Each structure stands twice: as structure tokens, then as C-alpha cells.
Amino acid sequence: MIELEGVPELIDPVMVAAFEGWNDAGDAASTAVAHLDKEWKGEVFAALDAEDYYDFQVNRPTVWLDGGVRKITWPTTRLSVVRVGGDKPRDLVLVRGIEPSMRWRSFCNELLGFAHELGVELVVIMGALLGDTPHTRPVPVSGVTSDPDLARTMDLEETKYEGPTGIVGILQEACTHAGVPAVSLWAAVPHYVSQPPNPKATLALLNRLEDLIDLRIPQGELAEDARAWQLGVDQLAAEDSEVAEYVQSLEEARDTAELPEASGEAIAREFERYLRRRDGGGPGPVAGTGQMGGHATDGGDGAAYLRDTPSERTRPPKPQPQPRPEDDTKDAKDHEGGQGAGDSGSGPESGPAGDDGSGDAKGDDSGPGDSSED
């Protein structure tokens, strides 16, 4: 029995979840949930027992000093709650953690237990996969569900994916079987520049979430970081003719495939978001990115957004075009989500975050075996 002490009765709660590891290319999804937690000052009210779900040789705990006292942080999944004010206040239950190493069915059942106790009306699980998409175009985000009725009422795709899956796919199916409405949002990250962070993909996921649950999400520095990221990749690609040629081929393929959409629903959706933010005193779209802006610029110089300090480097390493494995040749819309992206031994797809799906090696001194992946 789950007992939630100190958690008030929630208003129209939506559970938003993301997991570091195999389903998190460029750390885009986990960063999106972290952004929500930071902007709305989430308060952690529960954490799953790490001993039940994690292999500590894969996801190693970290040791740190607190006033001279050594403490240990265990890899786990934590739940926090935020209340979003306004004319129609509502609550978000944020689930952020690492893809578990074992007992996935028990893991999902425990999360569903929290959802039941809190009266969650909808579960939104975010993920990111590696795809054949150019960094110069808006990040494709697909919304999928296993519930045909939900697909129809919320204008989503009913998933038809068959193949290997991660915790995102397992949790969505667990929700469906438990009668809890569930949606997965997937952002496609360029496979040739897969190193985290990818603020442009994070921003795209948050924009899609905003549309899905009809809730304005503060962007903070994400829009500026997205500009910096794209300009940085532009500059690096311009220095390598092979990369520039490869990006151009992806642009031509993308523009040809999505020409009807670009002239219709996509533009209407962006314009509606722009009007919503303008009426609320918010900014307009980010030039050249297809995303919404969060800060005004000083002049038209794009270099103003290139922040490159010792403590925070937003420019990614030099991209390298490489052949893709078979699992990632499909378009993002045909994926149930990210399977094969960053899988162990998969060449360029193993770059963003730990080939074993660990995602918890940040700050670990044990060496490369625990790096996080998508």
C-alpha cells in the first residue's frame, strides 16, 4: 500500500515521465522533465527503492561530501509534484529517473500505484531517438498511443511498432492495460550530432507537451540555448565539406517529404502557439529554428547566442556522418520509440548516453563503462 503523507489533493493531475538511458537520445527527454521541475520548483515526495531495480555495476552510486560528511546518492527514480497556477490551475506529477536494470513489470506497477493514489488522469512519457533528420530543420516530435480512442480524440498516432522496446514502451503498455490513458512523445535527434545536450530537441518536446495538455510552459534559457546549439553545429558543419553535403541531402529529403505539412497544419500550430505566447506577454518564434523564443536578441548577430564558458559549453563536438544501423532507418513517426538508438555496439548511435542504458554515470569516477545513452 502506497502512503503519500504531505501530498495535498491534486487538481486535474497529469503524470509526465522521462528516463535516462536507451530512450533518451541527447538527454533531450530527461532534460525536459528536469526543466519542468526547475521552472516550477518541484518538491520530491517519493523515490523508488534503488535496490529493487538497478544493477549498481551498471548504474553506479556516487559519493559526495556534505560539510565534511561523506554521503551516497543512489541511482533511482524520483517523483515530484508541481502546481501550475493561472486561471485554470492544475498539477503535474513529474517522474524522472534512469531506465531500470531489472524487474520492469514491478517498476511499472509501482509507478501506476502512485498514479492511482494521486488520481492521475493522463500519463505522458517523453523519449528521444536518433534519426535521419537535419539539425537545421524543426525537430520532428511524434505523439503515439496504444489506445485507439485516445488516438482519435487527441489527434495522435496509434502505434504500430514491432521490435525491441525500452521502459517507455513498457510503461505505456502497462498504463493501457491498467486503463490509464497514456501518450508517448518522441523527438528525433540528428544521429550525426547525437552528443548531449540537445536543447533544441528538449524545447520541441516541451512545445509538443504544451499543446497536448493545453498548458503554457516557461522556457527559461532553453530558447537561447537552442539557438546557440544550432549556430554551433552550423559553424562546425561549414568547416567540413562532407558534413555540409550530408546535411544538405538530409534537408532536401526532409523538405520534399514534408512539403504539404509545412504549408498546412505545422504552420498553423506554430502560429497558434505564437499568438498564445504573445497574448500572455511571451516571445515569438526563434528565427531559423521553428521553435518559440524565450529571450530577445541584442542586434541581429547570431554570435550573441554562442555561450562557451569553462563551466557550460553549449557547442557540440564536431559532427561526423556515419552509416546508420538497420533499426534506425525508419522515420521517427514509424517508431514506437527510439529502439536501437544508442544500443550497445551500434556505432554512432551509442554516442549520446551509455550503451547499456545506464544514464547515471554523470559525476562517476569509475570510467567510461557507465556513460549514459539514449
From TrEMBL:
<feature type="compositionally biased region" description="Gly residues">
    <location>
        <begin position="281"/>
        <end position="302"/>
    </location>
</feature>
<feature type="region of interest" description="Disordered">
    <location>
        <begin position="276"/>
        <end position="374"/>
    </location>
</feature>
<feature type="compositionally biased region" description="Basic and acidic residues">
    <location>
        <begin position="324"/>
        <end position="337"/>
    </location>
</feature>
<dbReference type="InterPro" id="IPR038389">
    <property type="entry name" value="PSMG2_sf"/>
</dbReference>
<feature type="compositionally biased region" description="Low complexity">
    <location>
        <begin position="346"/>
        <end position="355"/>
    </location>
</feature>
<dbReference type="Pfam" id="PF09754">
    <property type="entry name" value="PAC2"/>
</dbReference>
<protein>
    <recommendedName>
        <fullName>PAC2 family protein</fullName>
    </recommendedName>
</protein>
<dbReference type="InterPro" id="IPR019151">
    <property type="entry name" value="Proteasome_assmbl_chaperone_2"/>
</dbReference>
